[in-house]
Structures are given as C-alpha cells and as structure tokens.
C-alpha cells in the first residue's frame, strides 16, 4: 500500500469543484465542512477550500491545508471512491491539531454512514 498524494488524487479544475458543490451532500463541524460526490475513478479525490476569512495570514491557511492533506493521504485507502471537498471554517494552531484531525475523521465517518444508508 502506498501513502502518496498524487495529482490523480486531487480535484484541480473549477468544474470538478462545481460538480461536488452542486450535489450538496455535506456534513460539518465547527472547524470543517466536507462535501462529497461519488466518482467512477475507483479512488477518492480531495479538494481544499481555505479562504482569507478563515485567517488572513497565508502561513496559517497553508498549515490547515497541509494538515487536511496529510490526514487524507494516510486515510485514502479506507475511503470510498468519491470526490471530497474540505472547506475550513475556522483556523486552528498546532496545539489544536489533534482536535482538527478527530473532527475530520468524524465528518468522513458520517459521510460514509450517510452513503451506506442511502445506497441500501
């Protein structure tokens, strides 16, 4: 098993983001909002949205993105073949990183349960 985060695992184009946003299957916590849409690629893909409203400093926004990408990289093998967009709602620091990772895990688990119940 490889734990790489290659280009094929990223949402890059505007229309890819738009198709996930238009489906509006979403779950949220205080820190994040996660949107999901099934894809036919056989693997999960990730898109990130961290706006200036979250934090004005690019350093902090980039830290949030790195944290989310790292979580996705380590957990992508257990995720269903869907396109995910993670939108940050609040900034967090290194001290709050563990809480943010737990919030991400919870959101993705909720989306998986929602998908499992809707497909049965």
| Largest sheet properties | 4 strands, mixed
CATH architecture: 2-Layer Sandwich
User: Can you give the mean pLDDT?
Assistant: 89
The helix-and-strand class reads alpha+beta
Strand content: 15-25%
Helix content: 40-55%
Unreliable segments of 5+ consecutive residues:
none
CATH topology: Ribosomal Protein S5, domain 2
From the spread of the alpha carbons, the general shape counts as globular
Strand order of the largest sheet: 1-2-4-3
InterPro entries: Ribosomal_Su5_D2-typ_SF, Ribsml_uS5_D2-typ_fold_subgr, RNase_P
Protein name: Ribonuclease P protein component
Pfam family, one: Ribonuclease_P
Catalytic activity: Endonucleolytic cleavage of RNA, removing 5'-extranucleotides from tRNA precursor
Describe this structure in words.
The protein is α+β, with helices and mostly antiparallel strands. The protein has a single domain (7-119), classed as Ribosomal Protein S5, domain 2, CATH 3.30.230. Helix content is 42%, strand content 19%. It is built from 3 helices and 4 strands, in the order H-E-E-E-H-E-H. It has a 4-stranded mixed beta sheet with strand order 1-2-4-3, with helices on both faces. The mean pLDDT is 89.
